[in-house]
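To the wet lab folks,

You asked to see what we're planning to order before we commit. Fair enough. Below is the target structure as tokens, and below that is the sequence we designed to fit it. If anything looks off to you, flag it before the synthesis order goes out.
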């Protein structure tokens, strides 16, 4: 369902009905960011294991980790909005694990018409059914609070993963 353009003011940046933060644009941005952070992480690993320079591992690894988690959370959010099949949603989540797979997944999903220009459950949109859709509709009604909660959620998952240790254990 198409949404009218919002008034052009600073609050439109996080307005869920605005085309500036549509499922299509948000998912495309994070897919590209995930690909860039994979590049940075691979560069850091080449520097560490090829040239014994590990200065890039921590900053690029942490950046990649944060974007990885954010992409996963947004994949879940878009999955609900777009009513993807279970296999499409799982494939979207799996695309974060394979280096550079997020952009091809996003492009293929876009070509199939599975990324829309508006949020289905935004105010004035579809009536939410079930607890997951009700949570998403609430998030879309309060975009600033949702952004803060999303950032806190990414930070919380990131912190737990840091406590558990790096992949493959400490060396």
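Sequence we intend to order:
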């Amino acid at each position: 369902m198409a949404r009218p353009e919002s008034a052009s003011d600073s609050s439109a940046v996080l307005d869920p009905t605005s085309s500036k933060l549509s499922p299509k644009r948000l998912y495309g941005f994070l897919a590209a960011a995930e690909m860039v952070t994979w590049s940075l992480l691979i560069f850091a690993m080449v520097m560490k294991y090829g040239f014994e320079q590990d200065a890039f591992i921590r900053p690029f690894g942490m950046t990649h980790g944060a974007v990885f988690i954010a992409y996963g959370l947004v994949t879940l959010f878009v999955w609900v909005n777009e009513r993807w099949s279970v296999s499409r949603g799982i494939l979207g989540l799996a695309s974060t694990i394979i280096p550079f797979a997020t952009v091809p997944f996003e492009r293929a999903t876009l070509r199939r018409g599975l990324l829309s220009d508006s949020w289905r459950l935004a105010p004035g949109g579809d009536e939410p059914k079930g607890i997951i859709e009700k949570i998403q509709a609430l998030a879309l009604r309060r975009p600033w609070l949702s952004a803060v909660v999303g950032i806190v959620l990414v930070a919380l998952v990131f912190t737990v993963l840091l406590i558990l240790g790096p992949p493959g254990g400490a060396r």
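Structural context that might help your review: The first helix runs from residue 23 to 51. Residues 1-19 have pLDDT under 50 and may be disordered.

Thanks,
Computational group
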